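Thread amino acids onto this structure.
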């Protein structure tokens, strides 16, 4: 089997993207529209592991490196609820970097996991995220513009992904994303809910 190379990513958040969205739509037709409701588990313990749940499945990605301002993330684990307490303790909680709570069950449904393990923890938060994503291809890069609702608060995101760093950098120029900060979902969510401070010039007001 061929080795799967983790992609590099540039992602920005703002209230709207104006000319960026116009450029994307000029350079590529919309290749698909997807909607999803996801739950992100964010931790005060670190910003290097991205944990989300969709359709009863848990997906954890770990930060690998930054190259020329682009972030590379790699899958760390995938799991499905109901999930064994041992798996939550040994594989999930190390990604949070916080104290491990007491487990009173051998197996947890998603609802039990959120209500009994995550909600009471002082350094964790479960955040509901709804995404409506419009897909494009720009300079052979995966691209998207999306409406994002974080616990009901609406913002937008623009994204470029590829295994080719230089292709992303050129695509940034093509759609005029060069002046934006690279912000992953984990950091953006933590800023919205107040777990991380906003920068002095907030991207959410761009």
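Threaded sequence (206 positions):
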């Amino acid at each position: 089997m061929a080795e799967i190379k983790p992609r590099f990513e540039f992602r920005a958040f703002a209230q709207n993207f104006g000319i960026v969205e116009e450029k994307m739509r000029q350079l590529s037709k919309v290749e698909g529209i997807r909607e999803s409701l996801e739950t992100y588990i964010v931790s005060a313990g670190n910003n290097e592991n991205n944990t989300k749940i969709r359709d009863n499945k848990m997906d954890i990605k770990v930060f690998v490196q930054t190259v020329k301002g682009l972030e590379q993330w790699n899958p760390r684990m995938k799991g499905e609820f109901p999930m064994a307490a041992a798996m939550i303790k040994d594989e999930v909680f190390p990604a949070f970097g916080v104290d491990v709570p007491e487990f009173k069950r051998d197996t947890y449904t998603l609802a039990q996991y959120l209500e009994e393990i995550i909600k009471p923890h002082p350094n964790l938060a479960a955040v509901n995220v709804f995404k409506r994503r419009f897909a494009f291809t720009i300079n052979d890069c995966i691209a998207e513009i999306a409406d994002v609702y974080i616990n009901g608060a609406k913002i937008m995101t623009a994204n470029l992904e590829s295994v080719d760093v230089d292709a992303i950098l050129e695509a940034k120029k093509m759609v005029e994303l060069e002046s934006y900060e690279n912000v992953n979902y984990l950091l953006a969510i933590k800023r919205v809910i107040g777990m991380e401070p906003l920068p002095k010039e907030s991207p959410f007001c761009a």
